Amino acid sequence: MIKKMTLVRKLNVFNTSSALQAKRLYAQINTIDIDVQRNLTYLVKTLGQSSDFKYREIEPALPHSTSIFISYLFGMASEDYINSYIVKALLRTNFTSYSSSNLFSIVKKQILNVAAVKETYLKDVVIDSILLGKTVIFLPGFNKALVAESQEIHARQIEEPDTEANVRGSREGFTEDITLNTTLIRKRIRNSHLTLEDMNIGKNAKTVVRLIYMKGIADKHIVHEVKQRLKSIKEVDILESGYIEQLIEDYPYSLFPTIANSEKPDKIVGKILKGRVAILCEGTPFVLTVPHLFIENFQVHEDYSSKFYITSLVRLFRIISLFLTVLTPALFVAVSTFHQEMIPSVFLVTIAASEERVPFPLFLEAMVMIFLFELLKEAGVRMPRPIGSAVTIVGALILGEAAVQAGVVSAPMVIVVALTAITGFIVSSLNSVIVLSRFLLLFAGGLFGFFGILMGGIVLLAHACSLRSFGVPYLEPFGPIVLSELKDSIIRFPLQKLKSTPEHFIGEDYEQHNTKKHSGSSTTNHKDG
Length: 529
Known about the structure:
Elements lengths: L1 H29 L5 H12 L5 E6 L9 E6 L5 H13 L11 H9 L5 E4 L2 H9 L3 E4 L6 E4 L29 H9 L7 E8 L5 E8 L5 H12 L9 H8 L11 E3 L2 H9 L3 E5 L5 E4 L17 H30 L7 H12 L5 H21 L2 H22 L4 H14 L6 H18 L1 H17 L1 E2 L2 E2 L34 H21 L1
Antiparallel strand pairs: 1-2, 2-4, 3-5, 4-5, 6-7, 7-9, 8-10, 9-10, 11-12
Helix pairs in contact: 10-14, 10-15, 12-13, 12-14, 12-15, 15-16
């Protein structure tokens, strides 16, 4: 037994020493060389096959008649900026009056006319910096390099997003530039607790992803969980925030969205101030926020700009529209097929007369009509904007009228599908849930009547009750009930009665900060008294 323990200890020591040796070897290989030419050879070998990789040799008046090299990517870095603030500054300087040992520090602190300059010893950092559009400067005799900010800004102008129109509120929308998007958030939250954290994720693309949250307000456990899930993305290249949404959500196979997205800066800022974590992705205007609750699908940022009674009424309309768009086809088919006794006699005669000319069962008729409407909606989205709206409107009118006249569908069914379509647009964030649930309940109602609809509804409700978004129950504040949060749920209380931050999102640091703040202010008041 003792021999086995001794052998295990020796193996552990051997493994530890091997790991340390591997780290030291990697650090030695990854360290920038003192010889500038060797560093340039490494860059040419790594990036030289790309036609946009550029490097330039500068020969200012140096003590030992050696050269300075700069390297960058054409298009990613601004050549005008490089020429004006880096190259000119180096060429105009007489380095012979400076000591060779202080050359690196002097160039960094006195000569370069750029806002941000940092130094690095690692080749990996050099490569990543060049790929981000920065300029790398190699000085002779130093095993480190300078990295200067020089990115070329190619940003779309700030416009109102088409996907989220509003009557009152900001007209600004996010763009594809992550820096500009961050600025739109920063200018709305002038607070030192606003925290930004960057990371590069993906197998090859190394997409820049930025977390933004309020330190002390956002739950630190949620922040940690978001970081861990993002770091676990290694085998997939991220090209849009939708990739991230699918890879980090709690239930990938669920109908219900547990991560929110928006193009509106004011909406994202409102969520950040309520303890959410925002996830920005380079190359897309859609910003993600977590956690996301079901009730948030019926709330818009514009609600807080209106009177509380108007907002409460509009929210009730949104919730009613969800039930109408999901249940109307299923209820119509179930009542007309299995429960005719519930229909008034006059209306029943009208429905029977309309269905008499239709050769298809009511269930199949409803399925086909809803399917055709989804096709029209998809055509309107994918076609060019001026043509898409015309195709959707004209196509629906012509097809509906022609189908009724030809006896393919009944007029009541056209009315039902039209009502279903209109109410479905009101809660657009639940579009996928609405479409799939509508077909599911229609199928259940067409086969089993009210019993099938009831069982389908119970299955959907039970599934929603089981969901959590980054540890927060999806149906809060209804399941479980949080009394303080019911003030801003289906109905909205006056702003004076609302808390700026929900209790279940407040971190421990926020409570400690407020406790210290209040105790400090009371002490000050006591001294003043």
